[in-house]
Amino acid sequence: MPLHDKYGRPITDLRLSITDRCNYKCVYCRTGNEGALYGDLPFEDYLRMVRVLVDMGITKIRLTGGEPLLRKGVVEFVGELAKLEPQGLKPHPPSGSNGTAKAVPFPNSDPLDIALTTNGHLLADLAQPLKSAGLTRVTVSMDAVDPDRFTRITRVPGGFDHVLAGIRAARRAGLWPLKVNCVLMRGFNEDQIIPFGMFAREEGVIVRFIEFMPLEEDRVWSPATVVTLDEILARMAEYRPLVEIPHARSETARRYRFDDGVGEIGIIAPVSHPFCGHCSRIRITSDGKIRTCLFSVWDHDLHGQMQGGASDEELAEFIRGVVQKKEERHHIGEPDFVPASRTMVHIGG
Ligand code: SAM
Predict the structure, then answer these.
(1) Ligand 1 in contact with 216 (CB < 6 A)?
(2) CA 237, CA 192: separation in Å to the nearest integer?
(3) Global pTM?
(4) Gap from CA of 29 to ligand 1 centroid (Å)
């Protein structure tokens, strides 16, 4: 049976955190020192988890963290992942009247889609080795195109040039599509919207704006701090008209092109336009816990099962049970909202 949750959503997408350490201290994410709170596992343990999940229908893996490029051996790990053969799941029919999709298995000759989310600080030297090892694509987080503003957000001086060099190295290495993610937080970088539109056109990257979610360590989120999809569109229209591009239902971003065809931007709007009905994701934290939603208030100890001697079949059974508990949706901004039991840096975004 393909992996799906009790609402009929196919689960095809794994976000795997390989460390919860980070070398940046972005205002919307984390604070404190560089140390990890939960720690990480040997790559062979992650590889076994991924192998079991790929046999259950996972076709896309995104490595994340913390900062995944801080892990020594990440290139070799990507090489091992690239040897796995996905089974494949195809949503069918594309969408039901209730907004959900059923999944059917199909023979899949496509290789595993292996993506990476990074702050880009260490990417310049690693882009080509990662590509050669089998990485399909990369997303770089960058929250300002102005270097001083960038430092105010990351709270680490001198990073901007490293990140820009990383983005350009990724493009040269052929890691495509190359996406640049910008979390907008009012009072910090909403004036960067138009400069990022120009950046997308000049650098040939897809810039994606993300609405700020209440997942940060400093607990500064409020509805007023969120720069919404509507506001981003209105601001960008002052620069150039945008034309919406159709996007896959499971895709998190709404996509737009500039009217002259040069440059693409995306907007990920989990706060103002939630997309939980099409969520195909589960997450594994750096310490081996499954999380079924960013906003879960509990997690499920997959690594504990492994340490207890579970066979691959028993792990698969455990995973199936966990996926059945996937939350229907998040409750951001509602009176019954309960903060997630971990902040973003310790989940893996
Ligand atoms: N260190 C890597 C990076 O910077 O991309 C990977 C981990 S980071 C937690 C993953 C993504 O989560 C980044 O794109 C980051 O901007 C985003 N993120 C972190 N905190 C967020 C928040 N409170 N709301 C929305 N996005 C957030």
Answers:
(1) yes
(2) 14
(3) 0.93
(4) 7
